[in-house]
């Protein structure tokens, strides 16, 4: 890869101009005094219970890692103040939203006292710092959840300006309560908030129709940088289109809290239109993929196309959440949202013909809103119901590869062989219309276990390797955090990684903003 190493050398030379200022030893006592002098007590949590809850990333299966403190920001000025304190006293900051990210994105990696330990005058960081190597630094979680206001609503522009602490669900409920027929259509986990949604920039079940958070749903952001300045990525511009200069907003979308702290977002909204759910099952995943490609190729415009394999359906049947048990076969659920019921019905008539040709059972179309909800429950309950496949003590690692749709059937067939060889159970729920496959690897955990068993780790790696071989990605929508850094060199190449490091150094020269996420600490790279 001569091309990549030449790029790497050029960027390494550029990076040396941006050499990092020597970070001073962290001074936690100084930082704490400054925090207490700046913020009222109800904005600063030092108690064990809050720190413990904040350090728990249940979805990532990483051991709990409580921060030293949680600062509940209420304004952009609060964020500026905590940034100034952090840079003055050498303290790490991690912005947090709903804390639903799955890859360890908000897990502190630096030294913080265990929650049961009293401070007793111990300055976290000093002890470890004395041992040399990277200076470990105490961490403040900067929670943006209290900044949850809808600041402006521009109905005729299909736009809203929101704080980072409101979620897509909260916003949609707010709009519905006001009788506004607009909504935000991108739907990651319930509980996720706009700051964190921009931080990971993933998507959800509606991506096939509406695109991902990396599309144009987030038009502009107000961001606090680590030098304490506040920028707006599109300035005062709220126009629907603009080509003014570099798209600096894109830098922060998916930056996982490593480049700046988002304190306001200008977002696009979509009209609320009638919605219809339908489902059917196929003899094989390959048949389901054939039908999906045909549906998309026919110019039909589903908002969601989701696949549950036979094992996932078995979990749903065990949970008895649906009015009738479903055949334990690969099942595609779909949603159509169009300006009228008639258009939805006409689209689904065309779909019925296509799926029949691909060997599916009869297409079941919801009669009314109640049935819409009942059928969609199959999708919404999959994560929880699959635990019944293993029973008490079930632990889950959700994988998140995405491949070109044309390679999806091959991915599923070859991954089935890997799963069988591993002896593990790994049902599929896939955003099939995007080629994004979540195989949830299940196993019975032991009491107090904090590490994934070796066979689970090996299967997760093998699935990523297969996806990369098929020109896919290790992270369709859940981001990189701590757990997927090892795959980045193979997926992105050295030149792109070097460019990312250059940007990180330019924006966070002291390395205090969510360090170790996305990129390994320099000199500690362990790529696959
Ligand atoms: C059951 C379940 C299902 C899920 N399904 C999906 C899915 O379908 N699609 C999908 O895309 N994801 C999914 N996720 C993952 C998760 O919901 C998303 O990544 C979500 O966007 C994270 O938002 P959050 O508010 O929880 O962010 P957090 O987890 O709090 O933070 C995520 C990242 O953003 C950074 N961050 C937070 N706030 C800010 C800010 N104000 N400024 C800068 N950086 C910030 C954090 O430092 C962190 O790196 C799922 C998770 C779970 C648990």
From TrEMBL:
PROSITE patterns per the UniProt record, alphabetical: FAD_PCMH (PS51387)
BP GO terms, sorted: lactate catabolic process
Database matches in Gene3D superfamilies: 3.30.465.10, 3.30.70.2740, Vanillyl-alcohol Oxidase, Chain A, domain 4 (1.10.45.10)
Keyword Magnesium: no
Signal peptide: none
Reactions the enzyme catalyzes: (R)-lactate + 2 Fe(III)-[cytochrome c] = 2 Fe(II)-[cytochrome c] + pyruvate + 2 H(+)
InterPro entries, A to Z: FAD-bd_oxidored_4_C (IPR004113), FAD-bd_PCMH (IPR016166), FAD-bd_PCMH-like_sf (IPR036318), FAD-bd_PCMH_sub2 (IPR016169), FAD-linked_Oxase-like_C (IPR016164), Oxid_FAD_bind_N (IPR006094), Vanillyl_alc_oxidase_C-sub2 (IPR016171)
Residues annotated as domain FAD-binding PCMH-type: 62-272
Cofactor: FAD
Known EC number: 1.1.2.4
Alphabetical UniProt keywords: FAD, Flavoprotein, Mitochondrion, Oxidoreductase, Transit peptide
Pfam families to which the protein is assigned, alphabetical: FAD-oxidase_C, FAD_binding_4
Protein location: Mitochondrion
UniProt cross-references to SUPFAM superfamilies, sorted A to Z: FAD-binding/transporter-associated domain-like, FAD-linked oxidases, C-terminal domain
GO function terms (MF aspect): D-lactate dehydrogenase (cytochrome) activity; D-lactate dehydrogenase (NAD+) activity; FAD binding
One GO CC annotation: mitochondrion
Family that this chain belongs to: Belongs to the FAD-binding oxidoreductase/transferase type 4 family.
PANTHER family tied to this protein: D-LACTATE DEHYDROGENASE, D-LACTATE DEHYDROGENASE, MITOCHONDRIAL-RELATED
Protein name in the entry: D-lactate dehydrogenase (cytochrome)
Organism: Rhodotorula diobovata
């Amino acid at each position: 890869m001569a091309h990549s190493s030449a790029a790497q050398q050029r960027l390494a030379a550029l990076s040396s101009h941006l050499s990092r200022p020597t970070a001073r030893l962290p001074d936690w006592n100084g930082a704490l005094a400054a925090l207490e002098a700046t913020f009222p007590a109800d904005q600063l949590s030092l108690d064990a219970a809050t720190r413990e809850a904040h350090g728990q990333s249940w979805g990532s299966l990483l051991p709990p890692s409580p921060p030293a403190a949680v600062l509940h920001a209420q304004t952009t000025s609060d964020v500026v103040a905590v940034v100034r304190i952090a840079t003055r006293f050498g303290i790490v900051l991690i912005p947090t939203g709903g804390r639903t990210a799955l890859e360890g994105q908000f897990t502190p990696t630096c030294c913080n006292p265990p929650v049961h330990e009293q401070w007793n005058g111990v300055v976290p960081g000093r002890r470890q710092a004395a041992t040399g190597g990277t200076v470990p630094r105490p961490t403040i979680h900067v929670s943006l959840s209290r900044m949850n206001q809808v600041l402006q609503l521009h109905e005729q522009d299909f736009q809203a300006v929101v704080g980072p602490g409101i979620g897509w669900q909260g916003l949609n409920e707010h709009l519905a309560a006001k009788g506004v027929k607009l909504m935000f259509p991108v739907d990651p986990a319930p509980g996720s908030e706009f700051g964190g949604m921009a931080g990971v920039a993933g998507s959800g079940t509606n991506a096939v129709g509406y695109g991902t958070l990396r599309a144009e749903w987030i038009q502009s952001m107000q961001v606090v940088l680590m030098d304490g300045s506040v920028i707006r990525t599109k300035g005062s511009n709220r126009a629907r289109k603009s080509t003014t200069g570099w798209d600096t907003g894109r830098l922060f979308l998916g930056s996982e809290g490593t480049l700046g702290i988002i304190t306001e977002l200008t977002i696009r909204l979509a009209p609320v239109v009638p919605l219809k759910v339908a489902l059917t099952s196929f003899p094989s995943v390959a048949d389901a993929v054939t039908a999906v490609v045909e549906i998309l190729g026919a110019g039909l415009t589903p908002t969601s196309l989701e696949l549950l394999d036979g094992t996932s359906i078995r979990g749903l049947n065990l949970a008895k959440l649906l009015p009738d048990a479903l055949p334990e076969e690969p099942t595609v659920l779909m949603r159509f949202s169009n300006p009228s019921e008639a258009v939805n019905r006409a689209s689904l008539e065309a779909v019925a013909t296509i799926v029949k040709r691909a060997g599916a059972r009869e297409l079941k179309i919801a009669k009314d809103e109640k049935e819409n909800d009942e059928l969609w429950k199959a999708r919404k309950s999959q994560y929880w119901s699959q635990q019944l496949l293993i029973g008490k003590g079930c632990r889950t690692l959700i994988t998140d590869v995405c491949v070109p749709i044309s390679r999806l059937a091959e991915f599923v067939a070859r991954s089935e062989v890997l799963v069988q060889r591993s002896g593990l159970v790994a049902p599929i729920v896939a955003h099939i219309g995007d080629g994004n496959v979540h195989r949830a690897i299940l196993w019975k955990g032991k009491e107090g276990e904090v590490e994934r068993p070796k066979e689970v780790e090996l299967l997760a790696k093998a699935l990523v390797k297969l996806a990369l071989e098929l020109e896919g990605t290790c992270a369709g929508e859940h981001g990189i955090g701590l757990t997927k850094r090892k795959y980045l060199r193979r997926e992105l190449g050295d030149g792109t990684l070097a460019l990312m490091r250059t940007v990180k150094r330019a924006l966070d020269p002291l390395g205090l903003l969510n360090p170790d996420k996305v990129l390994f600490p320099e000199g500690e790279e362990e790529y696959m």
